[in-house]
Every structure is written in structure tokens, then in C-alpha cells.
Amino acid sequence: MPTRHIIPPPILACIIFAQQVFAATRYSNNYWAARWLNSTDLEACHYRTARTPPPGQCYEMANCILESLSEYAKVGLASGTSVLSLVPSALALIPARGSGVEEIFETMGVLYFLLSIFSGYVRIGDASSHLAKEIGAEPNAAEAQFERGREKYRLGKRHYAFCGLTAALAGITVFLATELGVQTVVTWACNHELLHVGWLFCRMLPGLAEFALVRLVRRMLQNRPSWSVGGVGSRGWILAKGANGLSLALYGLVVIYGTGLFGSTNLIDGGEVMWKYMVMFPLLYFVMQSMLAAGTVWRISDSRGCRNASPGAVALSVRPTK
Q: Which chain regions cross the lipid bilayer (predicted)?
């Protein structure tokens, strides 16, 4: 019987809505300004900001805060911005420990698939590269079938327990990113507080794009078998390589955008950045990937008729049907 999976988009929508309410409330109270000013200076800045047209009020408040700080405090803010710009690169350096997007989706289900993309557990470029190797290994593939035969597993309670822990850790990362946006100011987007948490979800785009492109290429090869004739250099092979290049390029663009975003974030001290973002963020992502790896080991339930999983089953076998 097909396994019924929990679909997480409604849960993610609720989390995003809650974070928006949280951000709007704290911003309306000028929480990011109150962190640096005493009551007298804050009242003076409020009076100064009220005389500015609405589009420029945020920038006027930021200028007022900086004018009220000592030079030593400004040095701490500059160091915080410099260290914060390294966070996207630090996350990108965490090696992916899972399989390709297509393999994870077809063997582990939707919930595991989305959590894998969010945490960086999935290997970007693996699925499209494997497809290109399939086409290159079949020089006479006019009648080849590109539907993959997967072994379906019934996911047990321990698997969902690890997925639940991973989802909880993902919620913590969303909270920290939202708090960062509320407490700080981005120089080129002062009025937007959710850019940092939005970037966390942008990190999912390369995996989702590769999954969609690989599925599209497979469908095209099924409808036009002649495109795979010739193996390496055929139209199918070129399309698979193109999907690989696009997914990797998109991954690079996301890292570059994150570096620019975090490097333009101001009004945060270097000490806070070090322990909360340079240490906590990579640690959370590493633990999320470890949870997903453990969930893969225990992916088979103990119900009657199902085989027990072994640690060696983490690397799922992928073979095309004959």
C-alpha cells in the first residue's frame, strides 16, 4: 500500500504568518532602536523621525541611532557586519550528506524531501549528473526506458520522530533569522524585516529547480526517445547537463545574494553575531542533517512484512528499470 505522508506546506505557512506578526509587532515598537538608545535619546529620535516623510523614516531613525552612539560602539557594529557577511559562506561549506533530489523524493516522501532541501542535506547537481551518466552509458537508447525503478519503503514511527525533531530545529533557524531582521537594518532595504528569513527559504530554490528540470527532461525523453540516441552529445545528454549547470549556478547565486544581504546588515554587535549566527546557525544545520541521516537509517517500520533497515542502507541504490 502506498505510504501516506504528512504535507508540510500548511505548517510552513503558519510559521511564516506567525513570524510576520512577530516582526510587525516588534518593529512597531521600534525594538531595534530601543536596543541602542536610552529613553531620552529614543524620544528625541522619534520626534526627529516623525518630521520625515514615511518612506525615509526608517533611514532617519538609523541615522539618529548612529549619531547617538560612541565611536567604540560603532566599531563593534562594523565588526558585527563583517562577521555576519561570512554566515552564508559558512553554511555553504557544510557538506551535503544525502542523495540527489529525485532519489530522496521517490524513496523518502514529501516531508523528508522538503526538510532535506531546507537543511542542505540533499546534494545539488547529483540527480541531473546521474541522468546525464544514464544517457551517456546508453549509446543506443532509442528504446530505453528512463523511468526509475525504486524500492518503496513503509516509513516507521522512528523515521517521523527524526523528521519532527528536524522540523523543530528548522523552526528555530526561522526564528533566529526573523529576529535578526527585526533587530537590524539592511542598508538598501531598511523598511523590510523579513529578508533574512526569506533567504533561508531561497536556499531551497536550487534543489527544487533541479528536481523540476530533471523531471521535465525525463518526460521529454519518454515522449521523444530519439533524443537520447548517441549517448554523450545527444539532445537528452545536453539537456541533462544544462539542468545540472543551471541548478549549480542558481546555488551560487543564492550564496552570493546571501553574502550581500548579510554583509549589508547593520546595528548588530560583533559578539552577538559570533555566538548566535556564526556558531549557532552552522551547528543547527549540521544537527538537522544528522537527524535526517538517522531518519534514513530507521526509515523502514517494524510492522509485519517489512524488512529492517541497516546503516548501509543510507546510500539508496538507484537503478533504471529494464
A: 160-177, 197-217, 238-257, 277-298
Q: Which amino acid, 35? A: R
Find the farthest-apart pair of alpha carbons in the chain and give their distance in angstroms, rounded.
80
Query: Rounded CA gap, 261 and 255, in Å?
Result: 10
Which residue in the block uniquely carries the three cell numbers 523614516? 57
Asked whether the beta carbons of 84 and 268 are under 8 A apart, the reply is yes
The alpha-helical segments, DSSP class H, found in 85-141 are 87-92, 101-108, 110-119, 126-136
pLDDT of residue 8: 52
DSSP category for residue 148: E
C-alpha cell at 286: 549540521
Lookup: cell for 180: 535578526
Q: Residue 147, exposed/middle/buried by CB under 10 A (0-12, 13-18, 19+)?
A: exposed
Give the N- to C-terminal CA distance of the chain in Å, as an integer: 23
Rounded distance, CA 107 to CA 319, Å?
13
Distance, CA of 91 to CA of 127 (rounded, Å) = 21
Q: Which residues contact 66 (CB under 8 A, 6 or more apart)?
A: 74
Nearest to 102 by CA among 154, 146, 47, 45: 146
pLDDT of residue 203: 95
pTM: 0.80
Provide block-wise average pLDDT over 10 residues at a time, the chain (322 residues): 45 56 47 75 85 83 89 91 94 90 87 93 92 73 44 67 91 92 89 90 96 92 79 84 95 96 92 90 94 78 38 35 37
Q: Which helix (H) or strand (E) holds 185?
A: strand 185-186
